Give the backbone structure.
Amino acid sequence: MRGIAGSGVRPGDVAVQLREKDLSGQALAELARALRAITAAAGVALHVNDRADVALAVGADGVHLTGASLTADDVARFAPGLTIGVSTHGAAEVAALRAAPDGHVAFAVLGPINDTPAKRRYGAPLGLGVVTEAARVGLPLIAIGGIEPGDVAGVRAAGAHGVACIRAIMSARDPAAAVTAFCALLEV
């Protein structure tokens, strides 16, 4: 959270996603509770990957759904207060979310935009053209997949509302400085 302070980005415009796919429900809830305390103190949203039950149990702000998750409609039935984001891998998937009659999806995470080892199983990088095509649908987009600070202006110009990244922060020599750099570019 230190990288957000003084960056020009309002903490309310930032979210942290807890993505620990290999933890048991209990272990994930314990980690989520600790992270919820940190994010709440910083005024930053917390979204839990795939586990709406854990998100509810710890008072998280939202849940991030994947292709193997419950549907957004199912989650909205038992957790109407959670913000729902959904992973997508192409403009047609974003369009399908927007066209869904339930309208429960708040945003789509679209990627991989660039090559990244973690997303290679989803196919070739989509590139900025797909961001532009998907943005026409009107559902807020978060670009993911190999995003570096130098990519922020391009993905924003293509229509993304924001970016998500792991490697650019976690492998940085100074993660707080990396967050600050991203925030400064997103604030513009």
User: Anything to note?
Assistant: Strands lie at 15-18, 45-49, 62-65, 83-88, 107-110, 141-143, 162-163. The two ends are 20 Å apart (CA to CA). The chain has a mean pLDDT of 91. The first helix runs from residue 25 to 42.
